[in-house]
Design a protein that fits this description.
This protein is of the alpha+beta class and 458 residues long. It has 2 domains: 3-199 and 371-456, Aminopeptidase, CATH 3.40.630.10; 201-255 and 301-368, 2-Layer Sandwich (Alpha-Beta Plaits), CATH 3.30.70. It is built from 15 helices and 18 strands. The chain has helices spanning 3-13, 15-26, 38-53, 125-142, 164-170, 172-175, 218-221, 228-237, 260-269, 273-278, 293-296, 339-353, 378-390, 406-414, 439-457, and strands at residues 58-62, 69-74, 80-86, 106-108, 115-117, 148-154, 179-182, 194-199, 201-210, 216-217, 302-310, 320-321, 324-333, 359-368, 371-372, 396-400, 418-421, 436-438. Strands 1, 2, 3, 6, 7, 8, 15, 16 and 17 form a 9-stranded mixed β-sheet that branches. The protein has a 4-stranded antiparallel β-sheet with strand order 11-13-9-14, covered by helices on one side. A 3-stranded antiparallel β-sheet has the order 4-5-18. Helix 2 (15-26) runs antiparallel to helix 4 (125-142). The protein is globular and about 85 Å long. The two termini are 18 Å apart. The mean pLDDT is 96. Bound molecules: ligand BES and zinc ion. Ligand BES binds at residues 123-124, 157-158, 160, 184-186, 202, 366, 400, 402-405, 424, 430.
Amino acid sequence: MSQLEAVLAHIDADQPQALERLFALLRIESISTDPAYAESCREAAEWLVRDLSTLGIEAGTRDTPGHPMVVGHGQGPGPHLLFYGHYDVQPVDPLDLWTRPPFDPVLEEREHGPVIRARGASDDKGQLMTFIEACRAWKAVTGALPARISVLLEGEEESGSPSLVPFLQANADELKTDLALVCDTGMFDARTPMITTALRGLVGEELTITGADRDLHSGIYGSAVINPIRVLARLLAGLHDDDGRVTLPGFYDGVRDPSPELRAQWQALDFDEAAFLGDVGLSVPAGEKGYPVLEQISVRPTCEFNGIWGGYTGAGFKTVLPSQASAKVSFRLVAGQDPERIRESFRDTIRAGLPADCSVEFHPHGGAPATVLPTDDPAFQAARRALSDEWENEAVFMGMGGSIPIVGHFQNILGLNSLLIGFGLKDDNLHAPNEKYDLRSFHKGTRSWARVLAALAG
Ligand code: BES
Ligand code: ZN
């Protein structure tokens, strides 16, 4: 039996214990955006420090102005790898849509096999534990890690990573390695592993439009007095044209269509648009006309409204003419787009469309450019082969619609290329009620990392 085979066999035999460890981490309510959970975030960080030290990775928490980072270093042969994951999770609301308490993980039997149900099961605790479990198995079987491994685990990823850039800058020497490994992405489908080769950037904006200097009775003042909800609705509706294109001046400057070669590769994947929409109860693509859905969700820039409020939204009814209306708007960016130029174009457009007597205030919520990873790095080919050995189908290279700003920071601050490998599936309910992670993702994900580490170590 080869060393790798022995490691894989160990992973199979250790599944129940691995699951127990993941459940222990999932029980910690590490919601980063809500200050009420700050202690739980620290608890999760400390749990990880303890767990890492059992596998020969000397780790500690590092304080930041926000939640602590976990940093650890383990000795080993070959290349120096930096693993990144995040231990924080999204809030659980709306809680009443959960079928179980979000921080009481269980294994549920489903048609397609067992799933781990809990907040963070997929994003990102289950995923980061696939890597840690692979290291544990290597250590148990061979007495050592398969490569020199450093670890950086963040606790603010789901709340915009405010401490990340200063931390990377201050600790650049310590964190500079040969390659970053990131486990926070998904598979192409349940049988096809994926190496994510591009991520979209993100610009977040919150705006509040104010009309009259107080709320008013809509029977006494209505129609004569400007209604900020009406203004906001008109301005937001104007951000897309009838073909689903974003109307901001300069929005598409620098955006290019994928090469014919890439398009041919994606064509071969046979992405099922009807099933993609059908799975969430829909049938008609609502995005930019002329682009297939697969491109709309991965390589095209977007403008989405994430929240809108104003006036009376409680139970019953109230004939109020509100003084203010607000919205949260986000733009997903692709290569070639500059976040700050998009932000300015958005603000200019809103200001220009504002009627008399209205004012607007903007509040920024982070901005990060898109990232494209150089796939000619030999590590990409080695990892692709390793993944293909584990799963039914060959691994694919593919751009992804989500955003992981740290990958850009690794490039710019540490000069570090990242290998993005993850085992999440589209139906994991990320950021939503009833988040889950397939047991198969957890198990085969761990086996995949064991193989990838062997491949990278040469
Ligand atoms: N793990 C996700 C990113 C992701 C989502 C990767 C789906 C692959 C598939 C990550 O935790 C996340 O949600 N990131 C945020 C960005 C952040 C700046 C709030 C996102 O993409 O919205
Ligand atoms: Zn994540």
